[in-house]
Every structure is written in C-alpha cells, then in structure tokens.
Prior knowledge:
By secondary structure, the chain is mainly beta. Among the domains are: about 25-120, no CATH class; about 340-675, YVTN repeat-like/Quinoprotein amine dehydrogenase (Methylamine Dehydrogenase, Chain H, 7 Propeller); about 690-785 and about 1000-1030, no CATH class.
Amino acid sequence: MDGVKELCKGISPKSIARQVPVTSVEFLTETIVVSANGSELRVHDTVSKRVVGSAEVLPGHVRIHGIQKRNDRIEDDGVYILTVFGAKSWTVVRIRLTLTADDKAPVVDWIRQGLVHSAEDWIKAAQWVQMACDGEQAWGLALALAHCQVTVCETETGRIVLAAQCAERSLLYAAALWGHTIDELTVAGGTVFNEVLLWQAQDPTGAVSQRLRGHDGVIFGLGISADGSTIASVSDDRTVRVWNKQTGELEHTLYGHGARVWTCVILDRVIVSGSEDGTCRVWDRRSGECVDVWPQSAKSVWAAAASPQQTLVAAGGGDGSLGLWPVGARQLAARRVEDTCQLGSLGGGVRAVALLDCGAAVVATDAARIELHVTTRNDGEPRLLAHAPECRGYAVAAGAPGLAAVGLRDGSVVVVAAGGGITRRLRLHAAAVQRVAVAAHGNGAYDLFTASATDCVLWSRITCAPAGPLLSAPVAWLRLTPRAQWTGAAGASAGRAWVALGTAHGALHVYAIPVDLPADHTPALSPAASVPHAHGHAALSCVAIRHADAAPRGVAVLTGGRDGMLRAFSVVADGGDADAAIRITQITEQRLTGGWVERLLFIDQNQHMPWAAVTFHRKRLAVIRISARPAAIASVACAAAAKPWAVACAPTGALTVAVMVAGQLRVHAVPAAMAAESAELVAGLSAADVRAVAVIRISDRRLWVAAAGDDGHVRVLRVQPAAESAASRLCVESEARRHVSAVRCVVLAAARLVVTAGAGGALRCWHVDDGGGRLRALGDARQEALPGAAARVMAVAVLDDSASTHVAFAAAYSDSSIRVWLADTSTGRLELLAHDARRLHGCCVLSLATVRLADGRVLLLSGCTRGQMMVWDTTKLLNKKACVEEDIGPPMWSCKVHQSGINSIDTAVVLQNGAFVVASGGDDCCLTLSTFAVDSHVHLLSQQRYEFAHASAVQQIRFTRDGCRLVSVSTDQRLVVWRLGTEKDNNLSYCLYLHHMACSQVADPSALCLSTDSEGTTMAVVAGIGIEVFEI
C-alpha cells in the first residue's frame, strides 16, 4: 500500500456494544435462549428478560449463521453443549448454567469455546449424531455444505470421519439434516433451481431419493419435523410448502407472507415461518390454515426456534430484535377465539350491532326490533328494547362502554344505556342517519356524533348517571368541506376543547371548541386546521385524541385508515387567545396491517400507549395492541368490514368481539391475559438501515448516540456498560419522527442541540434532555427544499456554535447547491444566511467539513460526486449583523482529489504556521491526505494518496480529538485506525501510518462518529444495518 510506512501495531479496536440482525436462535431450556449477534453468542433469561451471559465465539469477521444444541446435558455440573457455525467456520461451545430455586435470573458461570475449525465450503446446516469412535459410542457433528456435500467430524479435533457427496452437485441456498446416527442421516438441500433434494449420507452413490418440485423461486430455508416425517420449505416465491418426507407428496402450499420467506420451524401442531415482511406466521399442520400472525420485526425475520416443550417460539429479526411468542394449545386457542357464542332468536337479519359492554349486545334486526342480547350464553332470550319499523332494511350503530346508539332511516337515534335499563329515542336529523360514533369520557359522560346526507356532523353530549335519567343536548354542527363524506371517525379530547373528524377522502379536520358556546342555539363550527390527505386517498376510518405533554395548548391525534397505516399528529395552538393559529404536524406513522384499520380502542390506561386497533385483512378481524412492536391480541374469522361488527373492552382488559359469519352473528371472548403472554427480550433498533449517527457524551460513564436512517425516525440510544448487564447493550431511550422520509444527516450542533436532515430538503432541530435522553423537537422548525426542487440534504457541518443563542451550519444538497443556515438554539427557528447561487460543483455535493484557523477565519470544505473538493471562506457570513440572504461567493481553492465521489471529509488540528490537514475518502477505495496553508489564498503544500486503503468504497473518515489518529470505515466492513505523521525530510508533508484495524459486524456501514472522554479513551460508533460501538 503506497505511503503506508509501518505494519499494523497495537491492540485492535475492541467492540464493546452492538446490535445487528439476529441470525440464529436456540433454546437451552424452557426459559433460557441463546441468540447470535454477529460473532457474539448471547444467553437470555425469558423470565427476567435479561442477558445473563455473552461471549465472542467465532473470529470477528465471521457472522454466526447457525446454533445447534446437543440433545443431552451433563447433569452433574449443568453444562450445555452446542455447536456454532458461520461461513466456513464452526466450533463447539460449552455453557455452564446455574439455575436458581427462587425467582432470580440464572447464573452463567462460564462460556467456553473450543477450537475453531474450518470446513471446505460454506456451512448450511449442522446436526449432532452418534458414531463409533475407538470402539465406543461418541458424539460427532454432521455438516451440510453449500455444494451438496456432507462431512461428519470429530467435535474436538475436527477430523473428518465421513465425507459424502450428492450425485447432483447443485449449489444450495439452504439445507437441513435429520437423524441421530450416521446410518440414518438424511440430507435435505434447497437448490437455486427451486427444488428440494433428499439423499442419504451413507449411500455411496449419493443418489437423490426424492426430488421435491413446486416452488417458483430459490429455496431459502428448510425444516424437518422431530419424527422425520414432514419437511417444510420456504422460498423466494413467498410460500411455505409442506411435504411428506416418505412419499415426496406435497401436502400444503401456504400463502400469506407479503415478501420472501427466510426460515421455518416445525412443531407437533403448527409450523412457524419467518419472512422479509417482518412477521412470523403460524400455520396449522393438519389444515394448512394460518392461525396467527406475529408482527415480530420492523425488518426481516431471520431465525426461529421452539422451546423443548413447544410452548414458546423465539424469533430473531433484522432490526436486532428478539421476540418470544406463546404457541401452547391454550394460547393458540385463545388467540384464535373461535365460536364462543352464537346469538339465536334474532327474528330476522342483523342490520347493526353495538356492544354495551363485554356481556351485552344491542342488535337492530330486519324484524323492526331493537333487542338486547346477553353474550355470555347461547340460550338466553333477547329482550325487546324498542319496536322500530324504520330499522327494517336499514340501521347503523356504534357503542362505547355503557352506552349504545342506533341510527334509523327517519333521522332518529335510539340511545341505550344502563345495561339496557334506559332507552330513549332522539330526533336529531330530517333524513336517514348515515353514520354514528360514540365516545366515552367517564362518569356517565358521552359524546354522540351523527350525520345524515349533509356536509355537517352533529355533535351532542349525553349524560347518563347511574341513578339518574338520560340527558342529551346538541353542542354544535361541525362543518366538513363541500362534498366530503364523514366515515364515522370522531374523537374529542378529555376537556372537550378539541374535536377531530375523518373523511372518506383521507382528510383530517380538527376543531378548536370555544369555551363560551351559546346555549340558545346550535352553532356551526368550521375546522381550525386540516390535513387534506392524512392517509393519502384512502379513507380515514378512526380517530383518537390524547393530551400532548410538551404542549399545554395542544393534543396528539391518532388516526387509522384504510391504507393499513396508523399515524400520529401533533396539534398545537401558537398562542393562548381564541384566534391563535393552529398547526398540525405529523409525528409518526406505522403500518399495522395489509388491510384496513377500522377503529381505535382504549384498552389500558396504565400503558404509555393505551390503544389497540381493530383491523380487517383477508376475512379476519384482528385486534392489535399499538406499541413499538405491535402484537395481535385476538384474531377471528369474519365476513368483511362492511358487515355488522363490534368490539368492546372491559376494565380488566378482556375483549368481546361480535362479527357476522355466514349470516350468523357470533360473539367471541378474549381473556385479559392474552396480550401479556408475548415478550420482547431485545427491542429492535430501526425499521431500516441507519444512515447517520452523532455521539452525545453526558459524562465519562454516560454515552448516548443519536441515530437516524431510512425509516425517518430519530432515536436516542444509551450505551449500557457491561457493569450494568452481562453484556454491553444499546437501549432505546427515546424516539420521534418529524421527517416524512429518509434521514441522511445527524449532527450535534451544540451541547444538546441536534440537527437532522435528509430527503425533501427537510432540516429539523431537536433538543436532548440531560436526564433521560428524551428527544424533543424544537417547535416545528424545518426548512423544505426550494419550490419545485426535490433536493436531498446529503451532509451537514457546523460552522459556528460559540454563541449560546444561535448555531450556524452549512448543508449540502443533491441539486449541487450549498446553503448556510442560522438556527435558534431555543426555538429551532431556521434562517437562511447564504447559498451557492451558481452551484459551482455542478453535481451532487456529498460531504462537508469545517476548520477554524488561528486568526478566527472559518473555512468550509465540500466534496462532490465528481471527486472535486472546494474550499470556501464563510467568515464574513458568520459576522453579519442581520440575516440577509446572499451568495457564498467563489471558492478559495478547487481541485479534483478523487476519481469518483468524495463520501467524507474531515480536518485535523490547525498547525502553528496556519497550515491544516484534510483527509478525504471516496468511492475509488482511496484515502487522500492534503496539507494546506492559508493567507489570502489557499495553498496546497503536499498531498498523499493511498490507493486501495480499503477493499471497497470508503464511506466515512474521522480524526480523533487530538488530531493524531484517523479512523476510516468502508463497505468492506473494516474499521481502520491510521496514525498521522510527517515525512522525515519535510515537516509540512503529512502522511498516514497503518496503526491497527478491526472487522465490524455491521453490514453496509455508512456512518461513523467518534467521541473521546476526559481520560483520552476514544469511542467509535459504526452504523449501517445495525450499530456497533468500538473502544479505540
């Protein structure tokens, strides 16, 4: 390597914390799970949900792809034995585990790794087998290799005892082994030709005994049942296919996943599959029907394993999550909740249904009857509440705990309360009631929303005290936009200061309710603010309102739509007067289903997010708890969302679901404990690749990382040291979303001020609280791209943060422009100081860096996709008295320093003679080190070019705080530390010496950030598909 003066010295950077995709899982006991996190093996206790042990068991450049436990245990000293393999490497690991008698977490005494052996080819599967060794039975390890080969090895020495080759030497993407001895060892190989090949390892000819055909894509995963009778294969064609191993007959083709399927595991009663769509699906082995869907990961589900007693399944996700799901007979029966009660004696077809509570249903029938049914038994006779000829052939209904409303053809609404003890008919409209919604506020207070054919929704208040009469009073007419159709989505805040409605065209309307509403007439109110397409062009079907902690004059509005999305908006009044402007800003969004979100249900006031969503997809109604990892509470078969249905939640958390199936109204009960049975052993970090990080060092012992990426979320992660856990971990402290698309830049602009930028030219300012790492957006501070432009912000660099009230920074854009901004540190308000009007780069600007000279001048350096670097003087811009937009001016220096794009630039400490050092890394795999001197012009003193500093594109470079070392990271997954020195004959000619390097387990790394503590220890954070923290 040109210019490298020394060989690698010193201790390699040490990985102290990471979260990367979980690529393999295995159960040691019913409550102990081991998972693969890169080359690290972690031991989890499912009871305490803690990591109780960890160890690096494979070389740092190898990722674990499989874990296989030996099916016995050395009972005397509690040692569990398993094999771990990845790429061409494998080893045997012993874990000594002490199980405590009380409720405390088990203790991992030690994790010991044997010799790391190397196979001739990539290892696709492993299986422990019994074999004869020196006349005695011993354990051997069978390995399935990528070119249809099998080797059986001695576990201690790695010596090959048996090597077998299939007659058909196809390339395998997946393999599975079955058999307890070498004689019965069966090999299943999934080929790139969409076939599954079965053959016997002991057959000297290697003849294929079964050829399973039917997939339309390559085979990614295989599973064999414990008795060896059934094979499951998963493929690029998004299906799971179940085969009879003896006959080769296809038993089931399982459709349902929305993307490629990676893995599967066969249990006695069900098959569990994991997919690129981020879900696990549970399939009944007998019928082939999908009985449950688990939203495991924001990314792919790579691995799954069942507990020894088949009561739990652990699943590992591409976002680093590790989930735990119940699959016992009781749990599956409860989650499916089939046919708890079928209501009889309905006296005609059902037109509408509403649940008063979990034990009573109000039903409107074609027999002109409104009836009360007890849902806890089949033989109960209904009670007639009202005889209403107007409900013959038409009725709409809605309910809330304690109250139900039925809208009729003549414009009246029948209100039922007090368990059916109070029934009152209200004449509210002149035409048929088309939509009804009811919201409960506690203590017998309700809001009733009704609409007929007009463009208005009538809002009424209902009061029904336990021992008093039912009182009603219209409050206001809520105007919609012309020709808008209300969907029945309505919500009111607790103090009734805000009301929100949704329309069939996806619009969200928010009304600010005056305190002094007139009592002598019903006023008409117009929306204070609206979002025309909150759910695109799909109907906005449900709304809920809760108070926002950060805004005393604001609320948070949750909306669900028929696009399957859940979105959250902040609604804030700019002032305290009645005429204050109302601003609506989208906070987050989350996909809950591939179908429709029809209702939001309040289920638990003790939770931070106490809501669940009622969804419809593929003729199933599902109730999904809303959280960072949504979990299905119940799933029942139904006709469609257009048919009568209702869901109610009891104070205990139990649910009642009423749906129409085959012309019959069926009521299902869901136990309250159902939702609590799934667990999250490790929370996922990001729904997409992480593209930018910034380190926020609170103290030497407290380190936070602000991270953002392709999912538009900004997260604050805490680096939990090993002293607080069995392994250092990354924990999400807070997260928020203000960007509608990918975030490319995260910069710490001041002590606690973070600037983020990305797609659409959007810039956002955030404040990170010292206490709990809470991320708080500063007002609605943002700046979109110029009108008509679709530019992305590619890089951000801080120019001046010396003032306590303002921070100046530069932003580089994909439209070849550079702009300088001034941010208010308290409000986040942004003002444009200057821009590159002539766009001199002429192409996408990829990187920025700044340097402050000894004389106070501030220089800005920029690099573009053509490999050109420019140096700009921004001193005059920063000294301006007023924010008047102007041109940045011509660059002081410009030259091509790379053959292609410059991905990163950084500057070292300024020298006494006014010179400074600039390092750059590019797509040409090179590092360039340039030394500059500055007077009235910029002079290049020397330049060193390091060809092939990495094996692929250099993504990021950073100097350490003392300027003596340079750290670089590349898509070759190497983290390299270089030492900065001078040539012997020229003190102004700087060069790099290779100091040491390490392999990162983060795939496709694209971000790097450094932080140094008071003792001089430097931490490097690498991000891409995962995040890893190194100590340098």
